[in-house]
Amino acid sequence: MEPILYARDLKKSYEEKGSGEKLEVLKGVNIDIAANEIVAIVGASGSGKSTLLHLLGGLDRADSGDVFFRGTNMSTLNTAALAGFRNKNMGFVFQFHHLLPEFSALENVMMPALIGNHFAEKRNERAEMLLGQFGLAKRGHHRPSELSGGEQQRVAVARALMNEPDLLLADEPTGNLDEHNTQTLLDQLFELRNALSITVVMVTHDRKIASRCDRVLRIEQGNIVAGEMNF
Length: 231
What we know:
Keywords: ATP-binding, Cell membrane, Lipoprotein, Membrane, Nucleotide-binding, Translocase, Transport
Distance between the termini: 29 Å
GO molecular function, one term: ATP hydrolysis activity
Protein name: Lipoprotein-releasing system ATP-binding protein
Domain ABC transporter: 5-229
CATH class: Alpha Beta
Pfam families: ABC_tran
Radius of gyration: 18 Å
Order of helices and strands: EEEHEEHEHHHEHEHEE
Number of domains: 1
CATH superfamily: P-loop containing nucleotide triphosphate hydrolases
Strand order of the largest sheet: 6-7-8-3-9-10
């Protein structure tokens, strides 16, 4: 099957503070993600999991190598074109929900559509529908400070799905949730994958979460390696 997302020979280094020395984080990563997969990226702390996710989503640029999504080489897009491409095709969820505190849950969910000028008069209706799917139909007019941690993260996932993305990228999305809320959020992600035919790539340090995914990719010493989940 033709991959929906793939990367070739991704390399990324950072300059260490103080010493000025280069730290190689990714050393030539190749990765293929099929449509509708839920894939976990695992590895030790500092192994480059989040760096890889950010490169796959166009939130950062590699030193060299290419990332392709639905046939488009994202590495060739300029900054403005890449931002528009992300907004239209991808949704992002992070460990910290990053909701805008001055806006309601409903307004936060609508934000990607407002930025990308999508859905026009149906923005409010679609945002309400998404909140309902996450059990938050009655919480739309509450601000983030009035929501629990689990509710805030579900709002963040609803926001990530606002523009009907084909790809959802999640960086430790359950890292700040208790076990109950973690399982609830994961159940909803799997249900949405089946209902909406979206692809999910998720960074996690949790073995239980990784074991529920269709496939697990492990980063070790800057490369994707085969083997057990020894992280």
